[in-house]
Amino acid sequence: MNASYAWLKTFVDFDLEPNALRDLLTQRVVTVDEVLPLRPDLAPIVIGRVVECARHPDSDHLSVTKVDAGTGELLDVVCGAPNVRAGKFYPFAPVGTTMPGGMRIERRKIRGAVSAGMLCSARELGLGDEHEGIMELDIEATPGTRFLDVYPVGDTRLVLDVSPSRPDLLSHLGVAREIAAALGKDIRPLIWTGAHDFLGAPSPEQESMTRRLLDELPTAIAGERFDATAIAEAVTTVVGDESGVAASLIDAVRSMPDRPRHKGVTEGNTGNVRVVLEDAEGAPRYCGVVIRGVKIAPSPQWLVDRITSVGGRPINNVVDATNFMLHGFGQPMHAFDVDKLAGSSVIVRRARPGERLVTLDGVERTLNPSTTVIADAERAQALAGIMGGRDSEVTETTTDIFLEVANFDPRATRAARRALGLSTDASYRFERGVDIEWAPFWLSHAVALITSLAGGSAEEDVDLYPEPRTPAPLKLRVARIAQLLGAPITAQETLSLLRAIGFVVEWVPGTEMLHGDQELHVIPPSWRLDIGHEVDLIEEVARLHGYDAFSSELRPFRIGTVPDAPIELVASRLRSVLANAGLYEVRPMPFVSGGEGYVRVRNPLAENEAFLRRAVMESLARRAEHNLSHMQGNIRLFEIGNVFSPSGGRLPHEEVRVGALIMGARRPPHFTEPKPPAFDEWDAKAIAEVIGETAFRGRSFTLVPGEGDTLWEAQLDGRRVGDVTRVRLDAPVWASPAFGIEVALETVASADVAAPGRAAYGREDAARGPAPVTPFRSLPVTPAAEFDLALLVPNDMPAAKVEEVIRRNAGELLERLALFDEFRGAGLPTGMRSVAWRLTFRHPERTLRDKEVSGRREKLLRALEEELGVRQRTA
Amino acid sequence: MTLDELVEAARSLAREGRDLIARASSGDELATARTTLVGRKSGRLTELMKALPALAPDARREAGAAVNRAKEALEAALDAREAELRHTAPAEPRLDLTMPARRTWRGAVHPVTRVIDEIRDIFRELGFTVAVGPEAETEWYNFGALNFPVDHPAMDMHDTLYLSDDTLLRTHTSPVQVRTLQSYPPPVRVIVPGNVYRRDFFDPSHAPMFSQIEGLAVDEGIGFVDLKATLVNFANRFFGRRPTRFRPSYFPFTEPSAELDVQCGVCGGSGCPTCKQTGWVEILGSGMVHPAVLEACGVDSERYTGWAFGMGPARVALSRWGIPDIRLLYDSDVRFLEQLAQ
Ligand SMILES: [Zn+2]
Asked: Do B265 and B160 have their domain in common?
């Protein structure tokens, strides 16, 4: 929402500078994203001080001056103004400035004298018609200061970040209400607000009468004694009448019965136009008026300024007036050319199947039967609450208009807006909710505005509101405020805070005497569509009391019942272990090209990445390729992230996995090893083992040789949980082989915990306790005996098999068995390799005798020969 | 020699021998020392051993052990000195100690993870534990339970990636609030880190997936003042003692809602492009848990109250390291990761 600083000032008399207003609004009401001066063309203008001034030798009306413009040197400037004097300050346009009129300031010679810049008149700056002389500034400022900083001219735009819950802030009136409440001021009587330019300044009597009216209105609405049309008519009269009409108006409001003339009425006339409300669901209230004899013309400057101050484009006096009403008061309006309405009819109905409409933007649209349209006797002429049609648009030749001031249903507007892909200032407001009660009031306001701008006279208006709404009072418990905010706020303060922004607040009889059990009855004003519950009121109280006014002292708290998620602890450990192992953690996107067997996103960002990954490695491989494309061949990445696969159930099967990808040099080059070897399978296996040890302490994590590119399957307690693979990449020739490790850490529990509104406490959490450990063994007191076995092992016989035989036959004194060498090639029988183990034996109580050790060796060799046919390698 | 004399002689030999060995400054000197001390023919140790047979059997055993200890000590010292001398052999040139160390590869956890860990650690000290939940969620957990009005502009703030009519990729970590409150009775104090998804195209400040961290505290007697106190305490520790301010905001699942700003660290509050001239930088959204949310989780909202907050660690990372484009965080470029690991 764009708000104009000057426009806001017409509603409430405040003297905050734009930045101070921004801070006030941001802290109490709505965040102001930006403060934009609306005369950016004046940004290059600086304050210049004329230091010397002399007659031009070759001219009798020119002066040659030296100007200090803060540049550190005095500039030669020729000036033709009669009022230029040494020692005075003037706006100065340095060389390079483009003036508001489009002229560019160049360094040039004027009758032989150099001029580097220009001292400006008000007219040259677009600040008025004064051009008799340059603009003498009655200020003391450092030369070179931005002109706009010391001489604020032009309006300032505040860009407000209005939340969907506060549609009432989508107008200047709405923002002004909050400013007034914050500053303890009254809002200016609405009759003149923002439109005094055309109505003239109010007299003090008018002000006070209207102020009384304003005070009474919310109560009147709350009491259902509000007949908007009657008020509107009366108030329109007030403008030119000082005879106490307002007072009698208030009496009229008070004595007004329920709104019988609205209930159930869906048809009416204004002038010769028949208005029929067929779709009261799409348009709960529909007001309209015919104004005859208007003269379409460009808007006066004040209105052009208002429209452009909020970023709009002036069109003509009637259209600009409706936009003025939208931005000023939050009520979208639309003007139709009556002559273009077939049968002089306005029918609010659903679109017919296949019905077409060319909207104001020139686009032909095919309508959906759920869309509400404004039609004449023959066809649709406007999209309700979104955009008018081109055929009934107001043009220069229009003389009679039908002005629509309606309230359209938020959901219906939203659905139509989405279906048509067409968002406008009007749809934006209707979608969020427009105050339904004030529609006729804004109608009469708009009539006054339009007839003053474009002449013409209004017929009697029509107001169709077949199901008038009744505001429901809310109960507000003072004790509940204290409970939710943690600090007491008195009933008295609550009452005045809420009343300041238009709420009707009353004590509930009887309760105020009982301490701690005070209750207030609150009726929110009709524009506060977001207020439906007690807690909504408490938010208002907290906000208006001031968030910063609450204590920020820590208070004691109770320890929670929720244990740490086990996966979080595992992931933390893994991250530090893998980072210490030299890998970088990454956080890539999980979207992949996928296909059969993948979970699909229904509305993906890109069709070629419409699926969710099944494996972390899919992301890591793409990331590795990305690095290779940047000539980076040393890649060590890991990720702990989620993967998805179809489950057959409602939600996909989701797992947390750790994945790692390594390729390139095993170590950084060092002068002792300029070309370190590349990572190979054994490095990958090591990482897999480290992952297993870190993630599954005390459980059986094994790596079982696999097939093809699967080097090993990772198994946890015998169940497959991951693998170590050769990763095939789209890689340049210079790239080293890539290896991947991926291990599932946890299946994510995504079943519903309990039905909506229910809880399911007491579920057994896995008892965590300490992880199982290997108990301490005494440090050895006796010497160990070692020997090596170099065996000829067939290439296709797993070393693990040999180890198994060794362990089984070595006896219980074998302390350690380590495979430490493998040799293939020359000197060995075909199909054989040499594998060497070191065996370490130790007796817990005594030194082993040489004979015992050699005996074991013999026994082992015999067993290996018998069981596997494996012999010792000789020589 | 008597037993005592012999034992004493062995001890002093070991002592003197150690000095002699330490003084040897070359291989030759050490060889001489070796011959002198443990030489087989005429070494001083051999001399002592020759005295053994003269003793009575009991004394002989004891003296023998003493001589043996001396021998082991001397030989160990000789070997050690020999190894030392070999390394500092005068023939080899002195090391150029300005040359680089032999390092292993450096790795690092992701900058966003580092931010998350810092936030988590501060809240751990404030009594919070870590909860997590699925990224693929039902519409009810993501929106319905969190009081999102159906078909309302509030939904526009969460442009959603759907998996089916009623399942989606969670748009915030708040579904974990619901799952946690349904699973554990108050008091609940949890912090929830996790990935969330929005249908946002990549640009310098948006990514379709990003991380979020949120916190939730629910108990009897928790009020807005506790929200404020905890978050100010957190902000002071996380950002340093900079002024903070709360301002009104809107989230469907909290009320009152507030956003927390800290004073801009770039300009110190006077206004600059980083803070869009406001002097403040937004750091998190927060609010009192909406009673409708508590009720959806089966918690009595008249008895219990609570507060919640959420923030984007990636945004913190961007400003902390001055990263101009959020895509750098997700590209997994090793040059980037290596630079930020420093
Ligand atoms: Zn700043």
From this structure: yes
Measured between beta carbons, the chain A residues lying within 8 angstroms of B189 are: 557, 559-560, 562
- The whole-number average pLDDT for the span B226-237 is 96
Domain identity same for B52 and B176: no
B156 and B230 inside one domain? yes
Cα angle A624-A626-A632, degrees, rounded to a multiple of 5: 70
**B184–A560: do the CB atoms touch at under 8 Å?**
yes
Co-location of B216 and B326 in the same domain: yes
Interval A75-96 mean pLDDT: 90
Among A20, A393, A635, A485, CA closest to B228: A485
Among the partner-chain residues A484, A588, A654, the one whose CB lies closest to the CB of B135 is: A654
B189, B223, B333: residue with CB nearest A483: B223
Helix (H, G, I), strand (E, B) or coil at A704: strand
* A754 in contact with chain B, both atoms CB, cutoff 8 A: yes
Residues B266-279 have pLDDT tens digits of: 888 888 888 888 89
Report how far residue A834's alpha carbon sits from residue A830's, in angstroms, rounded to the nearest whole number. 11
What is the per-residue pLDDT across B94-137, written as a single tens digit (0 to 9) for each? Answer: 888 999 999 999 999 999 999 999 999 999 999 999 999 999 99
The DSSP element (H or E) to which A740 belongs, if any, is strand A738-747
Assess whether B320 and B271 both reside in one domain. Answer: yes
- Do B317 and B225 sit in the same domain of this protein? yes
Domain assignment present for B282 = yes
**CATH, residue B312:** 3.30.930.10
Mutation site, B203, B220, B241, B247, interface A, largest A CB count within 10 A: B247
pLDDT in tens, A611-660: 999 999 999 999 999 999 999 999 999 999 999 999 989 999 999 999 99
- pLDDT higher than threshold 60 for residue B207: yes
Do A550 and B199 lie within an 8 Å CB cutoff? Answer: no
Residues B161, B252 within the same domain: yes
Tell which residue, A210, A166, A158, has the closest CA to residue A38.
Answer: A158
Cα–Cα distance between B247 and B249 in angstroms, integer?
6
Is A848 a residue whose pLDDT tops 50? yes
Q: Which of B54, B88, B122 is the last residue of a domain?
A: B88
Q: Is A59 on the interface with B (CB under 8 A)?
A: no
Last residue within a domain, chosen from B53, B88, B123? B88
Q: What is the ipTM of this complex?
A: 0.83
Nearest to A584 among B102, B224, B337 (CB): B337
Which of helix, strand or coil describes residue A441? helix
* Cα distance between residue A445 and residue A198, in whole Å: 12
Angle at B303 between CA B302 and CA B307, to 5 degrees: 85
Q: Is the pLDDT of residue A222 over 70?
A: no
**How far, in Å, CA of B39 to CA of A571, rounded?**
62
What length is written for chain B?
Answer: 342
Residue B164 tokens, joined = 């089916």
Q: Which of B100, B132, B298 sits opposite A757 (nearest CB)?
A: B298
Q: A168: which DSSP letter?
A: G
Q: B119 with B200, same domain?
A: yes
Question: Domain limits at B322?
Answer: 111-337
Cα B221 to ligand 1 centroid, rounded to whole Å: 37
The rounded distance, in Å, linking the Cα atoms of A701 and A694 is 10
Does residue B342 lie in a domain region? Answer: no
Q: How many domains does chain B have?
A: 2
- B321 located within any domain: yes
Indicate whether B97 belongs to any domain: no
- Sort out which chain B residues have CB atoms less than 8 A from A161's CB and list them: none
**pTM for the full model?**
0.82
Higher local confidence (pLDDT), A241 or A792: A792
User: A590 touching B, CB under 8 A?
Assistant: yes
A557 with B335: Cβ contact below 8 A: no
Q: Spell out the residues 6+ positions from residue B34 whose beta carbon is closer than 8 angstroms to its own.
A: B78
Contact assignment for B291 to A581 by CB distance below 8 Å:
no
